[in-house]
Amino acid sequence: MPAPENEDFQAEKDAAGTDDLGPLPVGQGRQDEPFKDKSYISPIMVIGTVKPDEAASLEFRWKRLVSARRWTIFKSKNGKKWEVNQYFKTGIPTPADDTGSGDFNDPTPSTDNKKIYIYDNAGIFLKSNAANAAKVGDFVRGENQFVYQVEVKVGGSFKKCAELKVGQLIVAKRKAVTGVVKDDWDGIENSNEVRTLDLVITESEVRAVVGGDLQIKIDPHAND
């Protein structure tokens, strides 16, 4: 929602390079390094309404907590099986506070509608020349579990007054080797829903990504 209702709208738009929400083409939607031109994201905005109207005079703040895992799904050298390995995790077992800059949220209730906002352009960082770059035909899969909280200041300290859990599921497939991320990857899925993800990869989830009937081997530490 543009200013003046959301006073941080322009900062949010500048950081993302767009004000579109939902899955964006690979390489779009982040302007900060090292993510610029290398991201696969699905921006969302969480909106809260302060009630009753009299409560709008109170002081609020946003908090964003995250837990996440990423996996590579690579075909073996002999081409006879899919091998699944974890290459990144954060906020496990305790969710990490990753609220970020105040430019990405507006905790001041709007004058007309008493609404507050937090913007999030989360996703995954795809590489073309690193350990998780993958061969043509290979995949990466990620699960992000976000908890968006609103805290209100009462008696000199902040206390949680609202919470929303959003799970983000991401799948991308390597399609070429050009060294340019947007040309090297296809975005297969990037979905945000009000849900709780287990941050664990299973054989059935891998099969849903790769299809076919090749053997699937999940590394014993893939879900550590």
Account of the 3D structure:
The strands form three sheets. Strands 3, 4, 5, 9, 10, 11 and 12 form a seven-stranded mixed β-sheet that branches. This protein has helices spanning 9-16, 181-184, 203-210; strands spanning 39-41, 44-49, 60-75, 81-90, 96-97, 105-106, 115-120, 123-125, 139-154, 157-174, 185-193, 215-218. By secondary structure, the chain is mostly beta strands. The mean pLDDT is 90. It contains three helices and twelve strands. It is elongated and about 65 Å long. Strand 9 (139-154) and strand 10 (157-174) form a beta hairpin. Helix content is 9%, strand content 42%. The chain has one domain (9-218).
* Approximate helicity band: under 10%
Rg calculated over all Cα atoms: 20 Å
Regions with little confidence, pLDDT below 50 for 5+ residues: none
How many domains would you count in the coordinates? 1
SSE topology:
Layout: H1 9-16, E1 39-41, E2 44-49, E3 60-75, E4 81-90, E5 96-97, E6 105-106, E7 115-120, E8 123-125, E9 139-154, E10 157-174, H2 181-184, E11 185-193, H3 203-210, E12 215-218
Parallel strand pairs: 4-12
Antiparallel strand pairs: 1-8, 2-7, 3-4, 3-5, 3-9, 6-7, 9-10, 10-11
Please name the defining characteristics of this protein.
single chain, 224 residues, mainly beta, seven-stranded mixed sheet, three-stranded antiparallel sheet, 12 strands, 9% helix, elongated
Summarize the structure.
9% of the residues lie in helices and 42% in strands. By secondary structure, the chain is mainly beta.
